[in-house]
């Protein structure tokens, strides 16, 4: 497998479905995306935002309404799926029920006309890679869901595709297996270094396995970057709210320093480090993660009252209020900190760094 | 694709067109007069009325018997042996030549019938007329209602009934308020099926209804073969079209309207449930067993009649009748088998090709293709037969007297089962199956051959089975198409019956049943051998 991984480029890609009653539905809307050679990029978004449609256009199952798709230098927009050299792992696995595990994995190799000995060798290798050595003679129905998922994976990688595509591959598995399988997919992808596009609506799954994540909304990409980029530096309230919890704090810039600023929150001075260029008097919206907030009995901070508390063992989740403002606060290790009960008065301490500021209009 | 359209045009649209034209054109000019005259003719009206009354009665009675069977099998906790018997008794009528029940009726209830004469001592029993036609058709067709209703009752699931029971309803009350409303659309569907079967039935009335109770299919046949009046026959057959059309339309509406099978979990192991009270259970089982025993008795009678000199008069054992059918009757046997064996693969192939095109691809005219493909199946055989006779008598397509016309008639008339099975199977196969194959590098043809074909193989075999069985047993359409060179066993049976050569008729019937059972068994075996164990779903039947 000496072939170099290749990049994928989507240029102003659109998909419009004609509905008899609803009129035209734009599932993907002039989407531009650069997928780097060898990386695992996840398309993350709520149901119906166009992830599957985008993936199916990359696979060639569905022609785009407009726009181009390139694999490396090659324009594949008009190339049928069977000539694109892809491996696709389906949500429902789509294994061939009339074939054994071995024949399922061998399918793509047989289609390519590869010799018998080579097929045996490569199927064996593929099954070993997914931990299913010795399962070759089984029928598909004799496997558990997790095992079927592995066969689907082995079948996709056995043909050594240029591009691997996953459409919510773990959504039919139980929670524990999901965590285990996503680890294996990530490991295998790193090992094989095949450029991979992975679709999911599960943010934790996305953060766990991806090199980069593209958050999609209404057929467009809201933001793309590493998990840390997206979590620490969201560019919009939508992204901030989509990935993890977020408190959106509207405030005014009071003073501007070099790499720092002082904000006004209901008369409270809030000084923090920020690379953003700001001007005095500007209205901004700060994105503060619930776990970045601290609660104290007294001292400096915003005077608040506990509205509700949920104790979850490893952490406690609070909803607190200060006048019109509401905050979510997550306190980890609540036992050695201190539990506040609802109705108690507390002081909220705002963090001095790692706060994203969004311009407000 | 073009070839397919051409074939459908030639063997479905063109004959029907020819039939319609023939009835409204007189000496090259349009005239509705003959049609109107036929409608006003009291004899024809009587036949039409008789046909409708018979179909209505058979529809009701057959649905009721089918319901009793389905309910008993699913809910009354039958023993294994009783269930086996019922399976046999409901399967045999579906694969038998059309005169089987009629012959048995004559042997039982005729002037020298086993029951009327020997048992009851009635000297001059009158077997011909409405009552025996009605009874024979009900016995012949109720298994269709049973097969349609049984999965529905099974799917309702006992949990629903148990829920109602726990709320304090009595069993009868639950049946009326929960079970019955749920299966009502199913009952309607079964009724329509039986109504259609009875309306189109030609063989039973021909033997049993006699001159007192003429019905349309037999009248049309007598006009054509007896009086050589093609036109009147054609017009009579057209009178069948209206009720048949109404039935077809109602059925389409019923099926399309809503999905009426509620699936509320799998039915618990039957036998444990208390859906019926003790007395009701006893009554149901007794009723089913009575019908079952009656049917098995008919078949036993048929077999006996085939191995004695003259049933009712001389009960010496003999193989003479079998000797007759394998000497004099040999050409008919050979020709029927040739036709069935040619039609079988063609019909099977046609079924999955049309099924695949309609069920899985998109093209303009797809819906039209589906409707047209069902046409010859939905129409009564008498109409189809007369239409073929009219269409293929002259140039440009003079096929009368050839085997081809009979094969074509069977293929286009009985492949719709294969088509429907294919479509139903395809609906269960997710599109991602094809996409998976494509993503692995396979082109469309490879995908069809290596993935789709194996998955729809059961439909192919179902298609083969039905075309073969019908080629061996059907008569209503092909009675008009046989010739000196190409005739059919069923036609021979009819000839024997009219010559009162009942022994050979019985022997022929037994032969057909044995062959059909053997071929069904072979096909089932082949299917089992060819498909993966987890795909062994549909059984070959009708
Ligand atoms: N084959 C189709 N026909 C019509 N509309 C479709 C089709 N596929 C998807 N859509 C519509 O396109 C939008 C995006 O769908 P999809 O890409 O499946 O979303 P996701 O995978 O992100 O849940 C949805 O509004 C959906 O209803
Ligand atoms: Mg999706």
How would you characterize this protein structure?
The complex is a heterodimer of chains A (361) and B (542). Chain A folds into two domains: 8-241, 3-Layer(aba) Sandwich (Rossmann fold), CATH 3.40.50.300; 245-359, OB fold (Dihydrolipoamide Acetyltransferase, E2P) (Beta Barrel). Chain A has eight helices and 20 strands. Chain A has helices at 51-59, 101-111, 116-129, 145-158, 175-192, 203-209, 227-232, 237-242, and strands at 8-19, 23-35, 40-44, 66-71, 74-75, 86-89, 163-167, 195-200, 212-217, 220-225, 247-256, 260-265, 268-273, 283-288, 294-296, 302-311, 315-322, 325-332, 345-349, 356-359. In chain A, the strands form four sheets. A six-stranded mixed beta sheet of chain A has the order 6-7-8-3-9-10, sandwiched between helices. A five-stranded antiparallel beta sheet of chain A has the order 13-12-11-14-20. Chain A has a five-stranded antiparallel beta sheet with strand order 15-19-16-17-18, with no helix packed on it. Chain B has 542 residues and is mainly α. Chain B is built from 23 helices and four strands. Chain B has helices at residues 2-24, 33-40, 42-75, 80-95, 100-109, 114-119, 130-156, 158-166, 171-200, 203-208, 216-226, 230-257, 278-307, 320-327, 330-360, 366-378, 381-391, 403-414, 416-428, 431-439, 444-473, 489-498, 502-530; strands at 25-26, 29-30, 308-310, 314-317. In chain B, a hairpin with a 3-residue loop joins β3 and β4 (314-317). The interface between A and B is medium-sized, with 32 and 22 residues. The structure holds adenosine-5'-diphosphate and magnesium ion. Adenosine-5'-diphosphate binds at residues 17, 25, 27, 45, 47-53 of chain A.
């Amino acid at each position: 497998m000496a072939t170099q991984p290749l990049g994928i480029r989507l240029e102003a890609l659109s998909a419009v479905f004609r509905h008899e009653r609803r009129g035209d539905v734009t599932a993907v809307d002039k989407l531009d995306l650069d997928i780097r050679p060898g990386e695992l990029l996840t398309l993350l978004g709520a149901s119906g935002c166009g992830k599957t449609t985008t993936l199916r256009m990359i696979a060639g199952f569905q022609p785009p309404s407009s726009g181009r798709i390139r694999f490396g230098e090659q324009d594949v927009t008009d190339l049928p799926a069977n000539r694109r050299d892809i491996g696709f792992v389906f949500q429902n696995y789509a294994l061939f029920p009339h074939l054994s595990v071995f024949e399922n994995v061998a399918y793509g190799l047989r289609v390519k006309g590869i010799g018998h000995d080579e097929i045996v060798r490569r199927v064996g290798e593929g099954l070993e890679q997914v931990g299913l050595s010795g399962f070759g003679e089984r029928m598909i129905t004799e496997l558990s869901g997790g095992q079927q998922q592995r066969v689907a994976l082995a079948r996709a990688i056995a043909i050594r595709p240029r591009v691997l595509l996953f459409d919510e591959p773990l959504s039919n598995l139980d929670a524990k297996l999901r965590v285990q399988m996503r680890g294996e997919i990530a490991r295998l992808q790193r090992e094989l270094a095949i450029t991979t596009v992975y679709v999911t609506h599960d943010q934790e799954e996305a953060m766990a396995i991806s090199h980069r994540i593209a958050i999609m909304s209404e057929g467009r990409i809201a933001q793309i970057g590493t998990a840390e980029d997206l979590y620490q530096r969201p560019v919009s309230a939508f992204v901030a709210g989509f990935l993890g919890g977020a408190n959106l704090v509207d405030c005014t810039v009071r003073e501007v320093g070099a790499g720092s600023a002082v904000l006004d929150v209901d008369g409270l001075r809030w000084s923090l480090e920020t690379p953003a260029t700001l001007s005095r008097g500007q209205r901004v919206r700060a994105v503060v993660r619930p776990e970045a907030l601290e609660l104290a009995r007294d001292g400096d901070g915003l005077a608040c009252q506990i509205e509700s508390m949920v104790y979850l063992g490893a952490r406690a989740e609070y909803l607190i209020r200060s006048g019109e403002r509401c905050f979510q606060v997550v306190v980890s290790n609540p036992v050695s900190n201190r539990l506040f009960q609802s109705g108690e008065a507390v002081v909220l301490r705002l963090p001095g760094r790692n706060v994203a500021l969004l311009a407000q209009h | 694709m073009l070839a397919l359209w051409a074939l459908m045009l030639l063997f479905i649209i063109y004959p029907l067109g020819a039939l319609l034209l023939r009835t409204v054109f007189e000496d090259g000019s349009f005239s509705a007069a003959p049609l109107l005259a036929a409608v006003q003719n009291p004899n024809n009206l009587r036949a039409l009325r008789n046909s409708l009354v018979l179909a209505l009665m058979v529809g009701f009675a057959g649905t009721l018997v089918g319901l009793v069977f389905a309910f008993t099998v699913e809910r009354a906790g039958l023993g294994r042996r009783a269930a086996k018997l019922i399976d046999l008794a409901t399967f045999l009528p579906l694969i038998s030549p059309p005169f089987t029940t009629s012959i048995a009726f004559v042997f039982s209830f005729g002037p020298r019938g086993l029951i009327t004469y020997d048992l009851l001592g009635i000297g001059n029993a009158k077997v011909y007329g409405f009552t025996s036609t009605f009874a024979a058709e009900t016995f012949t067709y109720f298994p269709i209602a049973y097969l349609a209703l049984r999965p529905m009752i099974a799917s309702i699931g006992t949990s629903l009934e148990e829920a109602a029971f726990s709320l304090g309803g009595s069993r009868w009350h639950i049946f009326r308020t929960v079970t019955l409303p749920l299966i009502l659309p199913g009952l309607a569907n079964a009724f329509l099926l039986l109504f259609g079967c009875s309306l189109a039935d030609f063989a039973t009335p021909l033997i049993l209804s006699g001159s007192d109770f003429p019905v349309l299919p037999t009248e049309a046949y007598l006009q054509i073969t007896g009086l050589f009046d093609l036109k009147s026959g054609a017009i009579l057959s057209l009178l069948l079209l209206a009720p048949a059309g109404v039935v077809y339309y109602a059925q389409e509406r019923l099926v399309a309207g809503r999905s009426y099978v509620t699936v509320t979990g799998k039915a618990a192991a039957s036998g444990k449930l208390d859906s019926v009270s003790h007395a009701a259970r006893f009554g149901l089982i007794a009723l089913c067993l009575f019908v079952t025993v009656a049917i098995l008795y008919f078949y036993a009678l048929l077999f006996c009649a085939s191995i004695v000199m003259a049933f009712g008069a001389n009960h010496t054992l003999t193989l003479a009748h079998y000797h007759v059918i394998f000497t004099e009757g040999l050409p008919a046997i050979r020709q029927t088998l040739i036709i069935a064996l040619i039609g079988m693969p063609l019909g099977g192939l046609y079924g999955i090709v049309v099924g695949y095109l309609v069920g899985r691809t998109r093209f303009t005219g797809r819906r039209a293709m589906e409707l047209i493909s069902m046409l010859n199946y939905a129409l009564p055989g008498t109409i189809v037969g007369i239409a073929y006779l009219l269409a293929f008598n002259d140039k440009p397509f003079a096929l009368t007297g050839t085997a081809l016309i009979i094969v074509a008639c069977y293929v286009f008339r009985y492949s719709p089962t294969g088509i429907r099975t294919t479509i139903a199977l395809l609906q269960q196969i997710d599109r991602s199956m094809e996409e998976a194959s494509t993503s692995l590098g396979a082109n469309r043809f490879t995908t069809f051959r290596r993935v789709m074909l194996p998955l729809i193989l059961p439909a192919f075999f179902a298609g083969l089975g039905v075309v073969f069985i019908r080629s061996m047993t059907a008569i209503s359409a092909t009675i008009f198409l046989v010739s000196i060179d190409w005739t059919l066993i069923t036609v021979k049976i009819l000839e024997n019956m009219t010559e009162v050569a009942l022994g050979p008729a019985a022997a022929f019937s037994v032969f057909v049943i044995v062959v059909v059972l053997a071929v069904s068994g072979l096909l089932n075996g082949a299917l089992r051998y060819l498909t993966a164990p987890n795909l062994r779903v549909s059984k070959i039947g009708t």
